[in-house]
């Protein structure tokens, strides 16, 4: 239909407008790939009955189910280009699993799964989704150029919908494209007969990009046709041939292959012009700058079960036309170009079918440039170089900056959008050893890729020059004589078989950087032979080597206490029998030993005339609870400093393994591991409450690797009833982190104190997480408590 009329036409009880003499919806087919179908995908064909080209720039085709519910939404496929006078314009939609014949090359592609039997298609001036759900409301929307309801569609033009649509039948206008604004009259059922703007029909054109032809002449499929306007290729599963492009990067190790990019971009910002050509174990024979024609199968590769996919050409054939060609201009990754919103949501479901909005979401912006050359300049490093030749930068220098040069992760709802992983495609060059706060000066350029670990990344063909900004390890002050210093340190699977260098570096961290605290709660101490699974559960040799190294580094002669776990019952590395351990300096603080604690026996709180005490010290908190299944059990100890009893509870909550990634296809991501951590937090919270019920002034320190953030429900559960105060929240926001992951500086390790601990000095000591050369992946922290003033 044409522009909506300003007066009623009584013969048209449904949607109406002046009948169109130009652009109309000429054919609709929703049975593609269904049972009995010949064609492999759905389509909408447009026609132009006018004498001049009809410009479709900024237009869209939209689909609504035949009987829309309150939650039904119009699904949008954006258009570009024009319909020639007397010509056709083919819009390919979702593919099914059946059929044997590809459409001719589509002029536009979407991913809408149309019903074969009932639905509504609208040609719309604009790309914003319609909201009308009735024929009358749609008649009043002046953006609708033409509308076709078929089957039993409630939204249609005229006396009724077009009838007869099925898995094997389309509804179509006659050759003259007549339009009386009555779908039942204007369209009739028949064999699907899609025609594209080149006049090609199924079998007459290179619909999937295949077929015979001059091997040096480009086929009809372009890279942007392969990439489409969503995260999934509209041509997935189809074989294409002679796709033109310039080679922009070559990967000769790991998953080998190369990237091509079409320098002749379309006008749609959602469709990437680059794609990865996967050669598997075969080293590519092309070089950067080659002009090529590539054939292969369009595939979606998922690096993991919850990640997004990478659109690829697999089992490729290639013809090199020439070499030394200029590369397509790189897409600039500047702070102003990357949107502030992170990623769209789908109620926890997949976002793959959503139309990309690169002007709204950062992850959509990156997806719309997947496989294309990108470039950034003078970027700050926010994740140190690792053993795999990777580092993280931010292209948004002002986004949640930490005091030492990182990017702070401070909210589930607002992930940092400027972070990008950087790798080098030059296998002959050494990768820079960068710390957080360093800079990649100059320009870094290369194809944009996607992987399980971290999501979008730049495969650098040109890497900026590293500028060392001199990040230094911190050294905290020594505690005063009347201050009890209590620290926590995850020493990353330490065992007696580790190299002396690792042990010495960790020991230096305790003796020098932490300045020899009175009590150190260690996480990830393994048994004496590490990952060897032979029934060994003791850690005596491990702790002897470690404390000897601390002494050699200038620290005190620490003593230790721990509860050995039941073999292979506490999670961690198989055979390692990970556990928490208390180190303490007997010249400054004494440990109150009370027998009875073991791997399966719970310690409890007893109120006596001399004050509250533990039934077992060291002991465990309810080790039989389901909350601790296959996980480390908290270690509780009773210490005395200057005549005052202090209870210390060392923790190592279950890991984040199994959570969906921030950048994955399920949004918002599921954080399934939180369930167990919240149960563990509730157990510790209940134990602290029992201490405070016996003595409201009980001085208690809860600390360790909680594997969760200060804003998480885990910490909220742990502090419920205000029985504990998370000390990380007392620091300035830009200093609240103990760990760096995927370029996010975040808090996983915590010290919390009971209300009686009123006079303290707290410090996170940054010595590991921000550095390429690290003894552990966690930073330790310490609280110095003036016990005599905590009454």
Structure description:
- There is one protein chain.
- Strand 16 and strand 17 (310-322) form a beta hairpin.
- This protein is mainly β and 791 residues long.
- Mean pLDDT is 93; it is low at 1-17 and 205-212.
- The protein has 8 helices and 41 strands.
- Strands 29, 32, 33, 34, 35, 36 and 39 form a 7-stranded mixed β-sheet that branches.
Question: What is shown here, in short?
Answer:
This protein is mostly beta strands and 791 residues long. It is built from eight helices and 41 strands.
Tally of strands: 41
Annotation field: number of helices: 8
Structural shape: elongated
Distance between the termini: 82 Å
Helix content: under 10%
Topology:
Elements: E1 23-29, E2 41-48, E3 54-55, E4 60-65, E5 75-78, E6 82-83, E7 88-95, E8 108-109, E9 119-124, H1 135-139, E10 144-150, E11 170-172, H2 183-186, E12 188-190, H3 223-227, E13 239-251, E14 256-261, E15 274-280, E16 291-301, E17 310-322, E18 331-332, H4 362-367, E19 373-383, E20 390-394, E21 419-424, E22 439-451, E23 455-460, E24 465-467, E25 483-494, H5 500-513, E26 519-525, H6 540-552, E27 559-561, E28 579-584, E29 590-591, E30 605-608, E31 611-614, E32 619-620, E33 635-641, E34 644-652, H7 674-694, E35 699-705, H8 713-718, E36 725-726, E37 739-741, E38 744-746, E39 749-753, E40 760-764, E41 781-786
Parallel strand pairs: 7-8, 15-17, 18-19, 21-23, 25-26, 34-35
Antiparallel strand pairs: 1-2, 1-11, 2-7, 3-6, 4-5, 4-9, 9-10, 11-12, 13-14, 13-16, 14-15, 16-17, 19-20, 19-22, 20-21, 22-23, 22-24, 25-41, 26-28, 27-28, 29-33, 30-31, 32-33, 33-34, 35-39, 36-39, 37-38, 40-41
Helix pairs in contact: 5-6
């Amino acid at each position: 239909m044409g522009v909506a009329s300003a007066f009623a036409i009584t013969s048209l009880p449904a949607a109406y407008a002046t009948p169109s003499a130009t652009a109309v919806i000429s054919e609709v087919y929703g049975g593609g790939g269904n049972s009995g179908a010949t064609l492999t995908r759905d389509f909408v064909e447009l026609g132009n009955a006018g004498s001049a080209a009809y410009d479709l720039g900024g237009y869209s085709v939209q689909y609504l189910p035949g009987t829309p519910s309150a939650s039904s939404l119009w699904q949008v496929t954006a258009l570009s280009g024009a319909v020639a006078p007397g010509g056709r314009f083919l819009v390919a939609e979702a593919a099914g699993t059946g059929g044997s014949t590809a459409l001719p090359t589509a002029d536009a592609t979407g991913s809408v799964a149309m019903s074969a039997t009932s639905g509504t298609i609208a040609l719309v001036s604009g790309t914003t989704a319609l909201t009308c759900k009735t024929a009358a409301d749609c008649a009043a929307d002046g953006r609708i150029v033409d509308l076709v309801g078929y089957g039993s569609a409630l939204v249609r033009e005229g006396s009724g919908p077009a009838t007869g649509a099925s898995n094997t039948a389309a509804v179509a206008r006659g050759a003259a494209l007549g339009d009386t604004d009555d779908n039942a009259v204007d369209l009739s059922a028949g064999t699907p007969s899609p025609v594209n703007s080149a006049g090609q029909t199924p079998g007459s054109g290179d619909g999937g990009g295949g077929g015979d032809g001059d091997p040096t002449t480009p086929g009809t499929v372009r890279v942007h046709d392969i990439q489409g306007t969503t995260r999934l290729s509209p041509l997935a599963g189809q074989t294409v041939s002679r796709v033109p492009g310039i080679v922009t990067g070559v990967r000769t190790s790991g998953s080998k292959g190369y990237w091509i990019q079409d320098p002749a971009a379309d006008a749609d910002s959602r469709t990437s012009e680059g794609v990865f050509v996967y050669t598997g174990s075969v080293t590519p024979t092309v070089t950067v700058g080659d002009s090529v024609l590539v054939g292969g199968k369009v595939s979606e590769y998922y690096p993991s079960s919850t990640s997004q996919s990478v659109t690829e050409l697999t089992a490729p054939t290639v013809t090199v036309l020439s070499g030394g060609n200029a590369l397509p201009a790189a897409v600039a990754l500047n702070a102003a170009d990357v949107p502030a919103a992170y990623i769209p949501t789908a109620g926890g479901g997949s976002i793959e079918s959503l139309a990309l909005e690169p002007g709204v979401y950062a992850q959509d912006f990156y997806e719309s440039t997947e496989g294309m050359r990108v470039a950034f300049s003078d970027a700050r490093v926010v994740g140190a170089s690792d053993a795999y030749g990777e580092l993280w930068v931010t292209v948004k220098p002002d986004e949640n900056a930490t005091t030492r040069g990182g990017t702070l992760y401070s909210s589930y709802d607002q992930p940092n959008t400027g972070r990008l992983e950087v790798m080098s495609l030059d296998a002959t060059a050494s990768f820079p050893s960068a710390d957080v706060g360093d800079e990649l000066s100059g320009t870094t350029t290369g194809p944009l890729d996607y992987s399980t670990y971290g999501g979008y990344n730049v495969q650098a063909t040109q890497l900026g020059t590293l500028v060392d900004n001199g990040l230094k390890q911190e050294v905290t002050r020594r505690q005063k004589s009347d201050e009890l210093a209590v620290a926590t340190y995850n020493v990353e699977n330490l065992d007696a078989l580790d190299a002396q260098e690792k042990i010495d570096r960790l020991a230096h961290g305790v003796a020098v950087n932490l300045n020899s605290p009175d009590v150190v709660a260690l996480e990830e101490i393994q048994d004496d032979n590490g990952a060897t699974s032979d029934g060994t559960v003791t850690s005596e040799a491990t702790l002897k080597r470690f404390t000897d190294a601390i002494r050699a580094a200038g620290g005190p002669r620490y003593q230790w206490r721990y509860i050995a776990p039941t073999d292979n019952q506490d999670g961690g590395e198989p055979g390692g029998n990970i556990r928490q351990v208390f180190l303490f300096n007997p010249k400054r603080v004494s440990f109150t030993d009370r027998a009875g604690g073991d791997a399966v026996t719970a310690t409890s709180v007893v109120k006596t005339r001399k004050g509250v005490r533990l039934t077992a010290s060291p002991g465990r908190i309810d080790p039989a609870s389901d909350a601790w299944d296959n996980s480390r059990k908290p270690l509780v100890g009773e210490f005395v400093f200057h005549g005052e009893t202090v209870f210390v509870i060392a923790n190592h909550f279950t890991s984040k393994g199994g959570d969906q990634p921030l950048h994955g296809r399920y949004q918002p991501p599921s954080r399934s591991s939180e369930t167990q951590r919240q149960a563990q937090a509730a157990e510790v919270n209940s134990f602290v409450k029992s201490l405070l019920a016996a003595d409201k002034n009980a001085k208690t320190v809860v600390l360790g690797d909680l594997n969760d953030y200060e804003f998480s429900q885990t910490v909220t559960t742990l502090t419920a009833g205000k029985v504990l105060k998370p000390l990380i929240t007392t620091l300035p926001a830009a200093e609240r982190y103990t760990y760096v992951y995927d370029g996010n500086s975040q808090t996983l390790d915590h010290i919390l104190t009971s209300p009686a601990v009123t006079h303290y000095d707290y410090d996170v000591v940054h010595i590991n997480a921000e550095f390429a050369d690290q003894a552990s992946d966690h930073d330790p922290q310490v609280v110095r408590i003036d016990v005599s003033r905590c009454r």
